[in-house]
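Hi R.,

Here's the chain you asked about this morning:
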Amino acid sequence: MAKKKYGMVIDLQRCVGCAACDLACKVENNTPDGFAWSNHIIETSGKFPDVRYRYIPTLCNHCDNAPCVQNCPTTAMFKSEEGLTLHDPDKCIGCRSCQVACPYNVIYFNEDAPHHRYRENDDPAIPGGSSTGREVCEQVGAPIPYYNPDRATTYDGIRPKGIVEKCTFCDHRVANGELPACVVACPADARMFGDLNDPNSAPSRAMANYVPKILKREKGTEPNVYYVREYAERRI
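And here is the predicted structure, written out as tokens:
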């Protein structure tokens, strides 16, 4: 029996462009300001008053032919047996070769220790009436107010300065038989995750029913994030 090969299908016709996936990812993975493991592309076309809007959710594509893995000089970026593109921070030297190689711009680099506004903020929004960022963290007993300790089961809960980080398909959740946070949070059920080698999995069924597409096919990365149907373009 073939090994599992995890992947995701995003149904653009179901997507409503709410960015719930982006928010769920940030909370689940404790990402710093400016980091978006789950992100999106917004396209507008036309001229007023006939202007159209298109929304494309994005994330790490966990490519079979991953440039980030091929260009990492220390094998810090690697492929798991189940097809996930993961990162070993203990091997990372912060050279950012993976970041440069990725054609999807989904790899982030911690130039500084993350979450400055909580660790160093001693200025309340309302003097005498609200707490500072540091005080909130002290009260909740966590590095940041929305800290998720589950993230630390397979990867640093908050990644340190000097290394890269990116989407892991929520490998810590997948290891427990759960779906990635972005999939669970989608109110329109636009995201399907599962074993692409299983013809009965949700993403396999979606690709059997619709013609799947990938981003930047010309790059030859063989991504494992697919898109079906088209976003229902909105007139602005």
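One quick note: The domain at 6-235 is CATH 3.30.70.20 (Alpha-Beta Plaits).

Cheers,
M.
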